[in-house]
Structure formats: structure tokens, C-alpha cells
């Protein structure tokens, strides 16, 4: 039997230093993630220079740990895939340079992977999802609906006019004193809520344009927090109720915008079978459950990778590398690193959308 191809993936575009080994039979042979949360905690967000230095210090160790966990040797790999953007450029340079150096030393192909493509294709690592599919990509920096037509072929439908969904969770958590990353903290607080607040705004709800917006929601939450603090520090039960209100409002927006994107695709005459969710916010259990209902009602099959594959990881980068290698889409060692790298570079700017009622 032929041995399936084995690809080393590296991810260093944000605050996870990650290395993974994945094979062409969809087996994750190793998935090492060194989280930098503690390095940034005191700053209430990610400090790019601290992230870059931490990647530099730890990427070696992450790669060694991945090989040790897999039982494979370095020469056994068929190619190296590394995130070459978008992201915090110092960290991206560290991972891309390491990936190119390993590929050069072994004489193996190098694959420059778009981090967002890693998220976009991650569903195909866990299930045989065929193109085309509708994707909700929701992370700390991105919030988009996309039609995924193939590897490297993306049509952006909706995007955010201001904050990303993950950013809305993170900023909300900061306002509520719940720390970073905000998504898991908000979800945990929401699960404890006895009287969730229900009247936070849902920006863009029902609009014909498929775009998202979250800054008005953040402002409304800030006003509620300021009012609640007038009597002294926030009561833990009030924090939980506000967190639950925020989580539901974000999810209502995401589901509504997803519905709008689906309607646009169907109006264009395209038959769709699959709905996919990717990115860190996809780890949210309440969102997963609401989207399961939405997909069932829309007659779509829903695929959401498990939480660990939704948040940043290198297995999705290795997998995107495998998808590219199969199509011969190999990169040169001069592949650029890109702080900004949209999946659909033909998509018009969404600025100006959302201004009409
Ligand atoms: O994809 P990701 O790990 O990194 C980026 O590429 O941005 O996404 C991180 C984002 C953060 O904003 C984090 O708060 C959010 O995903 N997140 C969640 C959950 N877990 C992570 N948001 C809501 N609920 C969660 N359980
Ligand atoms: Zn990400």
C-alpha cells in the first residue's frame, strides 16, 4: 500500500506557537500548540513584539515536540507548510523562515499557506466536505461569509464593517473584567447567568447587505457596564447576565448574516449542500447549537471542526499544505510574508455598506 503523504505544518501568526504533522489520510499524527496567553495577560491583549520573540524562542521546541509525539523522523516528511500571512508580521516571519529553512535543508517542497485558508479548509481535514460550500469564518481578526469554490478559490460574500466577532467577545470580556481571550470567558460566565439581559442591539440584523457590524453592540455594553458600576463594583451575577446578553446578541447577528449569505448564494442559482464554520469563535458551544438548528432548517449539512481545530493550530496549516501539494501549488523559497492577505482579493471594500436603513 502506498504511504500517505506527510506534511509538517507551522503556525505563528498570532499568539500560538504551533507545529503539527498531518498525513494525506486525514490523520493528525501530532498537533503541538504552545500558548502564549500568560506572556500577554498583563497587557489585556496581544503585544506583537512579545509574540514575535516568544515564537523565536519556542518554535524549535514545538517542532521537536511534534516529531516526538508522532514517532516520525524529520526526513519522513514530504513537504513543509507554514503560515505566511495574514497576521502579526514578526511572528509570521519566524514561522515562514523556519519552514523554508527546513524545506531547503531536506530538499522538500515548501508551501506558503494563507492562515485564513488554513481555517477555511479545516473542515475537510475532519470530514469529506466537497466544494462548493458556504463558510462562516469567525476569528479574533476576521468575520466573513465566503463561498469556497475550491483550494485558492474564494468568493467573499459578507465581511465586518468594524470589529470581528472574536473581537466583540474579547472587548466585551475586557469591559466586564473577564480577561483575555474573551470568548471562552464570556461563554463560561453566560452559562452561569440566571437572568440574561435581552435588550442589547443586534447591528445589521435583517439588512439586505450580507455584512456584519459589532461596534454598536460594544458601545451599548459599555453603557450598561458604566450604569451598573454607579453603585460600586460590578456584582458577579450582573457580569454573568451581561455576558449572556452579549453572547446571544453576537450569535443572533452571526446566524442572521449567515442566512443572508445563504439567500444570496441561492438567489444566484447555485445549489449548496454544505455549511462550514471555522475560526476560534466556532468553538463556542451556544453558536454551534444555534447553527445546527439553522442548518437543519435550511436543509444543509453542517461541519464544524472540534474546538481545538477551530482556534489557531498548525494541523490546519499542514492540511492546507496537503491540499495545495496535491494540486501542485508549491511555493518558491522566495514566497513573501504578508501582514494582509485577503482570501478574495477581488472583493470590493464594504465601506459605505450599512449606512442606509
Ligand atoms: O482563530 P483564532 O484562534 O485566532 C485568530 O486567528 O484570530 O480565534 C481567536 C478568537 C478570539 O477572539 C477568542 O475570544 C475567540 O476566538 N474564541 C471564542 C471561543 N474560543 C475562542 N469565542 C467565543 N466562544 C469561544 N468558546
Ligand atoms: Zn486564526
Structure description:
The protein has 357 residues and is of the alpha/beta class. 43% of the residues lie in helices and 18% in strands. It is built from eleven helices and ten strands. The strands form two sheets. It has a five-stranded mixed sheet, with helices on both faces. A hairpin with a 4-residue loop joins β1 (6-11) and β2. α2 packs parallel to α3, α5 (165-175) runs antiparallel to α8 (236-267) and α8 runs parallel beside α9. The termini are far apart. 5'-O-[(R)-(carboxyoxy)(hydroxy)phosphoryl]adenosine binds next to α5 and α6. 5'-O-[(R)-(carboxyoxy)(hydroxy)phosphoryl]adenosine (KG4) binds at residues 14, 139-141, 166, 169-170, 181-184, 187, 279-281, 283-284, 311-312.
Largest sheet: 5 strands, mixed
Helix content: 40-55%
Give the termini separation.
61 Å
Secondary structural class: alpha/beta
Average pLDDT, all residues: 95
Strand order of the largest sheet: 3-2-1-4-5
- Strand element count: 10
Amino acid at each position: 500500500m502506498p504511504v500517505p503523504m506527510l506534511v509538517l505544518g507551522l503556525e505563528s501568526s498570532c499568539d500560538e506557537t504551533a507545529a503539527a504533522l498531518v498525513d494525506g489520510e486525514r490523520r493528525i499524527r501530532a498537533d503541538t500548540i504552545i500558548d502564549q496567553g500568560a506572556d500577554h495577560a498583563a497587557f489585556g491583549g496581544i503585544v506583537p513584539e512579545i509574540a514575535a520573540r516568544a515564537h523565536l524562542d519556542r518554535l524549535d521546541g514545538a517542532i521537536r515536540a511534534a516529531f516526538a509525539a508522532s514517532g516520525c523522523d524529520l526526513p519522513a516528511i514530504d513537504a513543509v507548510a507554514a503560515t505566511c500571512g495574514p497576521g502579526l508580521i514578526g511572528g509570521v516571519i519566524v514561522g515562514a523562515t523556519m519552514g523554508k529553512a527546513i524545506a531547503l535543508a531536506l530538499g522538500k517542497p515548501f508551501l506558503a499557506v494563507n492562515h485564513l485558508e488554513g481555517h477555511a479548509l479545516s473542515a475537510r481535514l475532519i470530514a469529506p466536505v466537497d466544494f462548493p460550500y458556504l463558510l462562516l469564518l469567525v476569528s479574533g481578526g476576521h468575520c466573513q461569509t465566503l463561498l469556497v469554490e475550491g483550494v485558492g478559490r474564494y468568493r467573499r460574500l459578507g465581511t465586518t464593517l468594524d470589529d470581528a466577532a472574536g473581537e466583540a467577545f474579547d472587548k466585551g470580556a475586557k469591559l466586564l473584567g473577564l480577561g483575555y481571550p474573551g470568548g471562552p470567558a464570556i461563554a463560561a460566565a453566560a452559562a452561569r447567568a440566571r437572568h440574561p439581559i435581552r435588550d442589547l442591539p443586534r447591528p445589521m440584523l435583517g439588512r439586505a447587505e450580507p455584512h456584519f457590524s459589532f461596534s454598536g453592540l460594544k458601545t451599548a455594553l459599555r453603557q450598561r457596564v458604566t450604569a451598573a458600576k454607579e453603585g460600586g463594583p460590578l456584582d458577579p451575577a450582573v457580569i454573568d447576565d451581561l455576558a449572556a446578553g452579549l453572547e446571544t446578541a453576537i450569535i443572533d447577528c452571526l446566524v442572521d448574516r449567515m442566512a443572508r449569505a445563504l439567500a444570496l448564494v441561492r438567489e444566484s442559482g447555485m445549489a449548496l449542500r454544505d455549511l462550514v464554520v471555522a475560526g476560534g469563535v466556532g468553538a463556542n458551544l451556544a453558536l454551534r447549537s444555534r447553527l445546527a438548528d439553522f442548518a437543519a432548517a435550511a436543509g444543509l449539512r453542517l461541519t464544524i471542526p472540534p474546538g481545538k481545530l477551530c482556534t489557531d493550530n498548525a494541523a490546519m496549516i499542514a492540511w492546507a499544505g496537503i491540499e495545495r501539494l496535491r494540486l501542485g501549488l508549491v511555493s518558491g523559497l522566495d514566497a513573501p510574508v504578508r501582514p494582509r492577505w485577503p482570501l478574495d482579493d477581488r472583493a470590493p471594500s464594504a465601506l459605505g455598506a450599512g449606512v442606509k436603513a
